[in-house]
Amino acid sequence: MAPRKRSRAPARPGRVALLLAANAAALGVLWWMLARAPAAGEVSAGAPVEQPPVHAFPEPLAPAPDAEASREELESALGRASTLRAVREAVRGAVAEATSLSKGRVGPSNVRVAVHVRELGRPGSELALDADRAQMPASNMKLVTTAAALVLLGPGWHFTTTAEAGAALEGGALRGDLVLRAGGDPLYDPDAGGSVDGLLAPLVERLWDAGLRRVEGDLVLDEGDFADPAVPPGWPDEGQHWAEYCALAGGFSANRGCVTVTVSGTSPGKPARVVVEPRHHGLAQTVDLETTAGGKLVVRIDAHGAAGVIVKGGVPARVSNWSDACAHRDPVLLFGSALAGALRERGIALAGDLRRERGAAGGPVLGELYTPLASVLGPINTDSNNGCADQLFLALGHARGGAGTRDAAARVTAEALERLGVPSAGFEQTDGSGLSRHNHVSARQMTALIAAVLELPSPAPALFQASLAVGGRTGTLSDRLDGASVAGRVHAKTGFIGGVSALSGVVESHAGPRYAFSILVEYPAVDGLNLSCWKPMQDAICTQLAELRP
Q1: Where are the alpha helices (DSSP H) in 170-310?
Q2: What is the DSSP-derived secondary structure letter of residue 64?
Q3: DSSP of 270-306, one letter per residue?
Q4: Closest among 437, 440, 385 to 417, alpha carbons compared
């Protein structure tokens, strides 16, 4: 497959940006919406003795000084007719804007918007707009995946990859194979620039401490009951399979199934600096990247096709440490190559080959690699990492469903919903990331899920909320919901695939109550509408919730 361009385009400002520009402007728009009439009607080796670090549950932001009111008055704020009227008006305005921008291709007849809001800790206080209709959630499905893991596996659970001696270990020499047992670990550090050296080091040191100096057989990757890495039903077409968001999942992975490329300009006309991670990625590598005097950064990267890793294009001399990632063609091979390279660098020789097998004969455990569940929740929900989410989905099936397959994982997440008391009608899950167009969930189910997880025994609620992006501050919400009246008050998961936009999470209001919300949108896929229409609509609704007064 030909490598594709990876370049950054400047973000277009939203048409409704005034809603979030400042508190005064937001209040003015809120007054305008409330006045309108109603309209018809988203690692460490060794035994895991210590639990993963747990942060204190985020303290709700303080109520505004003028928010003194009785509990009964606060109860009525969400259920007021004017509040629903304002939400409907925000939806109607966004649909009208989409109709205009798309020249009529998108409009009231082919847009579906579902909204559900419930006050946390106060059953019955809610707002609903087509909230029971199952829709595609895009990456909001990651909330289901992570919630199911916290419920069924527990906050202290670890991915476990085991290394076994397939023969006698004598005088430092293993007389047969070194067998690795799959645990579904994404083996990913968001701060390591794609490197997995630090993540593999504890296992490698454990093997060294066990006396291993030479493997006379093969390095065997036993994938066990995990499915072969494959494209799930409903994913984007083949032309997008090179992209980071289409990284495959399997029994083994490294750097969440991706190759990360970091480039820097040098002198015009000279080759640019290029770093490819993981260093031992197992593929041929072709680099043709020149430093230019000026102009745009244009870098094409690919690691999905038969040609191996390709890095081509031009880097202006002024550019320093630009980085992007693409999907490796096989996450199992990526893990095996990375581990083989790490063993050799430590001085452990490998006489044989890298081999994949199921049901390989093993023996005594020489070392184990443990990765805490808590360490992947942030990459999944704050940064919307698809590879980590799909690895966790398969690991759920492996740990609780009898097989590391999508079907087993879907049965397991359905069990989690039942335990949480979330209605199951219309719910469908095909992958862990939400990239599949076969996923369906309603806005009401989403808020029920969020509310139920936040009522679990500690530390699950803290881990779950801390994993979400924060408006105006972190992750996929760092450049949204940053107005003076709402910044820091929205903890949520974004979602986008062609023709789908979603936002679900928690809003902390100035008056005190906290609201679980979900806003799901389906529309004909027209470029630019998510940025210009649906994101501003979602942000306006969240701003309104933050500013609700009795």
Answers
A1: 197-209
A2: P
A3: SBPEEEEESS--SS-EEEEEEEESSS--EEEEEBSST
A4: 440
pLDDT at 39: 33
Distance CA 14, CA 533 (A): 7
* DSSP three-state, residue 45: strand
Task: Determine phi and psi for 219, rounding to 5 degrees.
Answer: -90, 110
Q: Band of the pLDDT at 76, cuts 50, 70, 90?
A: low
Q: Are 520 and 541 in contact (CB under 8 A)?
A: no
d(Cα 223, Cα 184) in Å, to the nearest integer?
A: 9
CATH 3.50.80.20: which residues of the chain?
158-372
Q: Are 402 and 494 in contact (CB under 8 A)?
A: no
Exposure of 132 in the CB half-sphere (CA atoms within 13 A): 3
Distances (CA, A) of 481 to 21, 476, 486, 506: 9, 11, 6, 13
Residues 6+ apart with CB under 8 A from 109: none
Strands, DSSP E only, in 358-489? 365-372, 469-470
Could you tell me if 301 and 258 are in contact, meaning their C-beta atoms sit under 8 angstroms apart? no
Does position 254 have pLDDT exceeding 90, yes or no? yes
Residue type, 452: A
Strands 44-45 vs 365-372: parallel, antiparallel or unpaired: antiparallel
Whole-angstrom Cα distance, residue 222 to residue 167?
A: 16
Give helix 81-101 / helix 23-34 axis angle, nearest 10°: 100
Q: Residues spanned by CATH 3.40.710.10 within the chain? A: 4-39+69-140+429-546
Q: What tens digit of pLDDT does each residue of 295-349 get?
A: 999 999 999 999 999 999 999 999 999 999 999 999 999 999 999 999 999 999 9
Is-above-0.90 flag for pTM? no
- 158-372: CATH superfamily: D-Ala-D-Ala carboxypeptidase C, peptidase S13 (3.50.80.20)
CB contact at 8 A, 226 and 404: yes
What pLDDT does residue 17 have? 36
Contact call for residues 153 and 399 (beta carbons, < 8 A): yes
C-alpha to C-alpha distance for 393 and 406, rounded to whole angstroms: 7
Yes or no: domain 4-39+69-140+429-546 corresponds to CATH 3.40.710.10: yes
pLDDT the model gives residue 85: 93
Residue 397 Cα to chain centre, angstroms:
18
